[in-house]
Design a protein that fits this description.
alpha/beta, Glucose Oxidase, domain 1, eight-stranded mixed beta sheet, four-stranded parallel beta sheet, 22 helices, 12 strands, binds 2,3-dihydroxy-valerianic acid, dihydroxy-acid dehydratase activity, ILV_EDD_N, ILV_EDD_C
């Protein structure tokens, strides 16, 4: 190995572990001798950490073990030392009660792992929804150069023919089942076939949205994010990523805050709107911006969304799966189409600007990546609404909702928790009709750690009559794969006394998307009376992580990070001889 030396112009971060002729240096080098590394290797080569969220229990991330091997190959080829470290794997589909609180836990684990170990750069491997933002948030705060690679979309097999996506397909078929249009047998066949490969949801759910957003932010290799998990072309990207990481490790640049500036966030939001991406990404981008000191607000999402049409014809807002988006040209082609709306001088980890990346991109299929003047849907694919029901804002993915509900007035039917919905949604006694506004509360960050409950089910009797959308309002999140007129992330949430807590059955609610307004039509005096009578729910979490969570979690309009995690401190290693290990010659 040692003849394959790479030039680096600066003192490496890892030198503080390995280049000292003292007892700590001896201990660090001799420890890694057990992993096959010589004194010369450790003294001369840049070290790249591979933070891997692979796990058997998380099939979205199942291929990350193989991809990590490919990244290692690239790192070795370029003369670096690859050191892989497993981190918590968060599987949205399996983890209970919801994956969301663990995003911040993994972010802390990633940040502290990067800081505590001798990494000169890190490769972040994520897949299922929360692993992606968590790794980015941790790496952004740790400040060491990083590159991201997602596991890639799965390749779902449809038992019913057509492009049936992993989760959007589930929601559609559940609707059909409830409406009596699909047999139990056909539904069971779907269960057996839908998750046949590794990889995350193959529509523009949260995982695919986060993956393409990483490319737009400049943190992933251009063109890499939509290659399916089982496609061997992902291998090539993994090796290239490994090679590039060594260069970044040697140069100590670019650091996350050199990539993640206001231009990068604007570009990412532009792409999010153009692909009809997940509302969850809004929360993740707000949290990430908080880590690097970019003053991003919900209003910025609305401002950008107004001018960006839906150009990606991909589910849940369009027709196809993400594989078609890749063969149509992928993210570089999407960005090329969006060129007049982007900051072209934003930097990327591959060393080029976004403008340079898209110079060679090409749209191959204009049905899948539409031109700006022939979009799938015009601008305003997601909106931020405010009013006395959501003083700090709420969001709605309008491109996946029935426009008939964009200007709606109807009586509230309030559910205190999700179990009551499950028990009572079909109960005719509730008198729900298609004009009713279904409300779920106590599902916000403090109330229930914000599960993906926002697409409330519709009553069976209405579904049987062909009703497929109704206005639903909650302080919960919604799966990126879901659809419907769901007003989400209402802030402040009910559990801390937000106005959602004061709504009563029969109150009139008014949504006006054009005006971006969400109003509870109740007199201020009456609301004040209800506020005086309101009692906060007792916290169920008296110890451990969930207790820490409910005490420090911020509201949705600020990204649900912990208040003490905002910002970054790039290096906290003590100066001097005894870095972390006491001893000397
Ligand atoms: C069920 C679908 C998931 C797991 O992808 C979801 O978290 C999403 O937001 O897309």
């Amino acid at each position: 190995m040692s003849e394959n030396k790479i030039e680096h112009s600066r003192s490496l971060r890892s030198a503080r572990w390995f280049r000292k002729d003292d007892l700590p240096g001896f201990v660090h080098r001799s420890t890694l001798a057990a992993a096959g590394w010589s004194r010369e290797d450790l003294m001369e080569r840049p070290v790249v950490g591979i933070l891997n969220t692979w796990s058997d229990i998380n099939p979205c991330n199942l291929n990350l073990r193989d991809l990590a091997e490919e990244v290692k190959t690239g790192i070795l080829e370029a003369g670096g030392i690859p050191l892989e470290a497993p981190l918590m794997s968060i599987s949205e589909n399996i983890i209970k009660p919801t994956s969301f609180p663990f995003r911040n836990l993994l972010a802390m684990e990633a940040e502290e792992s990067i800081r505590a170990y001798p990494f000169d750069a890190v490769v972040l491997l994520g897949g299922c929804d929360k692993t992606q933002p968590a790794l980015l948030m941790g790496a952004a705060s740790a400040g060491v150069p990083c590159l991201f690679m997602a596991s890639g979309p799965a390749t779902p097999r449809s038992s019913t023919g057509g492009d049936l996506a992993n989760a959007t397909g589930v929601w559609r078929l559940v609707d059909e089942l409830r409406a009596g249009e699909l047999s139990e047998g056909d539904f069971a066949a779907f269960e057996r076939s839908v998750m046949g490969t590794a990889g995350h949801c193959a529509e523009m759910g949260t995982a695919s949205s986060m993956a393409v957003i990483c490319e737009a932010l400049g943190l992933s290799l251009p063109g890499s994010s939509l290659v399916p998990a089982v496609d061997r072309r992902r291998t090539r990207f993994a090796r290239e990523l490994g090679r590039r990481s060594v260069r970044m490790a040697a140069e100590g640049s670019p650091r996350p805050n050199e990539i993640l500036d206001e231009r990068a966030f604007d570009n990412a939001i532009t792409l999010l709107c153009a692909v009809g991406g997940s509302t969850n990404v809004i929360i993740h981008l707000l949290a990430l911006a908080g880590r690097v000191g970019v003053p991003l607000t919900l209003e910025r999402f609305d401002e950008i969304a107004r001018r960006v049409p839906l150009i990606a014809n991909v589910q849940p807002a369009g027709e196809h799966l993400t594989e078609r988006l890749m063969t149509a040209g992928g993210v570089p082609a999407l960005l090329k189409t969006l060129k007049p709306l982007l900051h072209l001088d934003a930097r990327t980890v591959d060393g080029r600007t976004i403008g340079e990346v898209i110079a060679t991109a090409e749209v191959i299929d204009e049905d899948v990546i539409r031109p700006l003047d022939k979009p799938v849907k015009p601008g305003g694919t997601l909106v931020v609404v405010k009013g006395n029901l959501a003083p700090d804002g709420a969001v709605m993915k309008t491109c996946a909702a029935d426009p008939k509900l964009f200007s709606h007035r109807g009586p509230a039917v309030v559910f205190e928790d999700v179990q009551t919905i499950a028990d009572r949604i079909d109960d005719p006694e509730l008198g729900i009709d298609e004009n009713s506004v279904l409300i779920l509360r106590n599902a916000g960050p403090v109330g229930a750690a914000m599960p993906e409950w926002g697409m409330l089910p519709l009553p069976r009797h209405l579904m049987e009559r062909g009703v497929r959308d109704m206005l639903r309002i909650s302080d919960a999140r919604m799966s990126g794969t879901a659809y419907g007129a769901a007003v989400l992330h209402v802030s402040p949430e009910a559990a801390i006394g937000g106005p959602l807590a004061l709504v009563q059955d029969g109150d009139i609610i008014e949504l006006d998307v054009a005006e971006r307004r969400l109003q509870l039509c109740v007199e201020p005096e009456e609301l004040e009376r209800r506020r005086q009578a309101w009692q906060p729910p007792l916290s169920r979490h008296v110890r451990g992580y969930r207790n820490l969570y409910s005490q420090h979690i911020e509201q949705a309009h600020r990204g649900c990070d912990f208040d003490f995690l905002r910002g970054a401190n790039e290096e906290t290693l003590p100066e001097g001889l005894f870095d972390g290990w006491v001893g000397g010659w």
